[in-house]
Amino acid sequence: MSDFDTIIRGGTVATASDTFQCDVGISGAKIAALGSDLGYAAEIVDAKGKLVLPGGIDSHVHFSQPMAPGIVMADDFASGTRAAAFGGNTLVLPFALQQKGESLREVVKQYHAKADGRCYVDVSFHLIITDTSERVLGQELPALVGDGYTSFKVFMTYEGMALSDLELLNVMAVARETGALVMVHAENFDAIRFLTDRLERAGKTAPQYHATSRPIPVEREATHRAIALAELVDVPVMIVHVSNREAMEEIRRAQIRGLKVYGETCPQYLVLTEKDMQGLNMEGAKYVCSPPPRDEASQQACWEGIQQGVFSLFSSDHCPFRYDDPQGKAFPKGRTSFRWVPNGIPGVDTRLQILFSEGVGKGRITLNEFVAFTSTNHAKTYGLYPKKGTIAVGSDADIVIWDPQQERTISQKLLHGACDYTPYEGFKVKGWPVSTMVRGKFVVRDEKLVGKPGDGVYVSRGKSSFAVSRTR
Ligand code: URP
Ligand code: ZN
Ligand code: ZN
User: Fold this and answer.
1) Cα(371)–Cα(101) distance, integer angstroms
2) Domain 55-360, what fold?
């Protein structure tokens, strides 16, 4: 008779607060014991020389999102969660995007239909609110928050998605009443339109001008405004995908003033710059995302935001479009400006390696901070903790076995999503995920896919605990 289904033996366990040598006993979907000499198990997994970490939680990904006519997002829930599993993630939070006029409840139903039975890792949904009608804000949204959809994103830019200040306030008021968390894409839509028109008139239409059309003040102003609106309503906000010092400092100032303002940054703002968009022909389109990657000084500022706890989340903003594909990054027929390049880049499968290598490996953050930024803080922020995001008795056995010595050069041929390129091609990292276990079952084992679609399930969420502790 076994004491456990699985024992992960001989590894170094790290959580957001501690690092210790210990075996992990797993029964069914749960962590049942931590210690040594745990007894018998149906399966012993040797983790000697490896790190045993809470599975990555990527709380900002886009899969199967409807796009403008002619454009198709590369990943669906099967390919996107497969890529996530190979990247050491055990749960992802994609967005259920409402288009104007759509019922939110109907949208959520559609996303469940897209995800059900297809996921390799667990999923939960944020909502994207683009229609602020009375039916949506008065009825559907409060009911959905009650049903476990406890976070929603609003956009201050993008045609058909940008909300006016009044609409933002109305959405924030619903969050205040229901205890939900508002995530804000902070860029000034009118300023971007103004700059885009001028660039196009001057014949500056190559992908690199995407960055010129949305410079730092565009993001800084919107960040400031989003925070001011949230302050008026007295509601917490998460400013997502922050790319530079000025926006980071807006968040820091708000935090110093005691406001519940949180920040997220992403790999592209640590290791890419706008120069990457200057590639020949359309190569630059591979890096077009919003806000755009900036310069080395902005990278440094984002590191500071991580090190000083201004940011609590490190997410991928995985938003994949194929490069060599008329439905992807290439200009669609007859459309010849950066304006038409779909915004977003892939990254769900390279997020952990980049932060581990550049952060832990280069002494910028500790291993425990790495766990906090890539897993625990996501669980706390989005109402999943302590079921998810930690290694503790009673928590779900969501675990990544990590080889800290493994040196790799990131390359598309190592990856497992449906995109045909990675913006991090050629980037050298030390540290790589070896095996990924979701609720007690390996999905990836020794870098081979052993799971199947449906191993990942939908997870309903509670309210944000806002217990995101300062990491320094
Ligand atoms: O360019 C980006 N980030 N595209 C994804 C959508 C979003 O704004 O997060
Ligand atoms: Zn966004
Ligand atoms: Zn995004």
Assistant:
1) 40
2) TIM Barrel (3.20.20)
